[in-house]
Amino acid sequence: MNRRQLLIGGSAAAVAVGGATWAGVDQLGSMTRYVAAVAESRAALSANPGFAELVRFATLAPNGHNTQPWRFRITPGGIGILPDFTRRTPVVDPDDHHLWVSLGCAVENLALAAAATGHVGEPRYAVAETGAIELALRPGRAVDSALFAAIPQRQSTRGDYDGSPLETADLHRLAVAAEVPGVETVLITDRAAITRVRDLVIVGNSAQMGDAAFVRELKLWLRFNPHDALRTRDGLFSVASGSPAVPSFAGPWLFDRMMTATSEHARYARQLDTSSGVAVFVGAAATPDHWVAVGRACQRFALQATVLGLKCAFVNQPVEVAGLRPELAALVGMAGQRPDLVLRFGRGAALPYSARWPVAAVLA
Question: At the N or C end, where does the chain have fewer CB atoms within 10 A?
Answer without folding.
Answer: C
